[in-house]
Specification:
alpha/beta; Rossmann fold
């Protein structure tokens, strides 16, 4: 029988330093909470709104009093803000083991009236800013990564980057295109950064009851309606995101690179005509 190396710590993130964008609410906050549960000792989050950052930090610090939790508010859709954010992170820490690139936006409108400005805004934040953030953070990630335990980047895509999403009156054309781009960019970055001891994977969530998704979710039958359409009979829960995020950041996934993991109960396998 082969020997499993130190199994009890395989999923531990003890002592790690993590950065989570869009970490003040929704999937980003779920991810941040999960990383702290797994042992992350230093966590830096960001979102555009300073008050939302402060509220999230207070809540996380209360739950994890021994961790160093802080926030750097920033509008990552602007390249100068990405540079400023990473510079501020570099003042706090000398290395980053985990980067969760989660910040994102959506827009719904009919194809004939879908504004160019909205499409550009979604692509800027969901794709361009993610690439800019990763590029700027590479030195901090390289400082943390080793051959045995590489640094980790997790991009947050979506199942609408794998299948047809919302069309018609509330069509999310720019959002769907942006998430497909995130998935493909993740694969390119995995090949480019793997030799530099940085692994890059993507999580593709389905329906979760987040602020960004709630309006569209209500239009499509709510949690109950979409839950019934899913092969496992429900929509996502916070622990569903936590489990995948912790796995990808842990030693258990030290040979996982360039993957896109749907977290949707199998909805991406259901034909659009059945949804």
């Amino acid at each position: 029988m082969s020997q499993i190396k130190d199994y009890p710590t395989m999923f531990s993130l003890a002592g790690k330093i993590a950065v989570v964008t869009g970490g003040s609410r929704g999937i980003g906050l779920h991810a941040a909470t999960g990383l702290l549960h797994a042992g992350v000792s230093t966590l830096i989050i960001t979102s555009r709104k300073a008050d939302a950052c402060a509220e999230a930090v207070a809540a996380l610090q209360k739950l994890f009093p021994r961790a160093d939790v802080s926030a750097i508010p920033a509008d990552l859709s602007k390249p100068a803000e990405v540079t400023r954010f990473v510079a501020e992170v570099s003042k706090k820490v000398k290395s980053v083991h985990i980067l969760i690139a989660n910040a994102g936006a959506s827009w719904g409108a009919p194809v004939d009236t879908h504004p160019d400005s909205a499409f550009a805004k979604v692509m800027d934040l969901n794709v361009r800013s993610v690439f800019n953030l990763i590029r700027e953070t590479i030195p901090l990630l390289e400082a943390a990564g080793t051959k045995e335990d590489p640094a980790r980047i997790i991009t947050v895509g979506s199942v609408v980057g794998l299948q047809i999403g919302s069309i018609g009156e509330h069509g999310t054309y720019g959002y769907a295109a942006s998430k497909a781009a995130v998935h493909h960019m993740t694969k390119h970055l995995a090949v480019a950064l793997g030799p530099r001891k940085i692994l890059v994977n993507a999580v593709a969530p389905g329906w979760f009851p987040t602020k960004m998704a709630s309006g569209l979710l209500d239009l499509y039958g709510g949690a109950g309606g979409q839950g019934k359409a899913s092969p496992d009979g429900r929509i996502g829960l916070p622990e569903d995101i936590v489990g995948v995020m912790v796995f990808l950041c842990s030693r258990a996934a030290s040979h996982v690179n360039g993957t896109i993991i749907p977290v949707d109960g199998g909805m991406h396998l259901v034909p659009a005509s059945k949804m």
